[in-house]
Amino acid sequence: MLAIGKLLELTLAGREPCEKVQLTPRGVKLHWLAEGALLVSPPSGQDQGVDLLLSAGIHGNELIPIHVLDRLIRALARGDVQPRARLLLLFANLPAMRRMLRYMDQDLNRLFCGAYADVWGGEAIRAAELEALVAGFFCGAGRQRRHYDLHSAMRPSRLAQFAICPWRESAQVVPGALARLQALAVEGVLLQRQTSSTFSAMTATLHGAEAFTVELAEGKGESLPAAVLQFEHGLIAMIEGRELPVGAQPQLLSISREIVKRGPRFRLCLPSDIENFAPLSLGSVVAEDDGMRWVVDEPDARILFPMADVAEGQRAALIVVPLEQPEAE
Q1: DSSP string covering 142-179, please?
Q2: Is the pLDDT of residue 215 over 60?
């Protein structure tokens, strides 16, 4: 295996590879761009015109996505995967990864689309660095641009793996994008209805990429869940330009309401171990905050990302509802 394949190990140790550019025996070029950033280029004549960005470690305590990206990089360095797409592979929040924390000073996934300019700290600097790396990667004209920002929801889910599609003006999720997600064992897609400053929102709005935040399945013990292994197999097929399997379309959902923690008396009126996408009964109280109550009035409502232990002003949960059918392109 090429030494650059130990990118995660080098990154966690704060070291750079001795050789910044290395070639596999089959002509795949691996180029170390910056700390935690690797550019992979297929051999001449094998590039099928796709630029694929894969990122992990936006939240440093989400270990499964980091492990998945590490496994892919090692497979590329061994020559086990022969890409026919250009790849930019990013480990994002390095200090948080080294300490296995969600973030250090600021939630990195709220600092893109220029939002880093309004805050101070290491995450703000890293957001600017990542935006610059992405701009350099997505600079070629006439190429398909895709981005999967890999996360882990950190709790069991009724939908084992799901994706979040960022909103951008006059753009709708297309059938081809849903088919690719289905091949990656994604069971549900949440359509956002307003702008955000997440990493995938940045690549979608600023670079026109087919971009999704992908929440990988949770597992028990050291073995990867079956859904994550299916995700890996589908991802490698995509990278190698092979035909993807066709299956049932992921379920589409929409955000009905966002529950924001506004003060120190905030509490979620839900079991601490409630699953993502668990149904909510009509008339039930989801949260309370200094006299304010969030009461379920949506039929077939589900809960997503319940997390009471967040800073004031941050999202503590989402109420989501299924959509009847996909929107047309």
Answers
A1: T-EEEEEEEEE-SS-BSSSSEEEE---TT----HHHHH
A2: yes
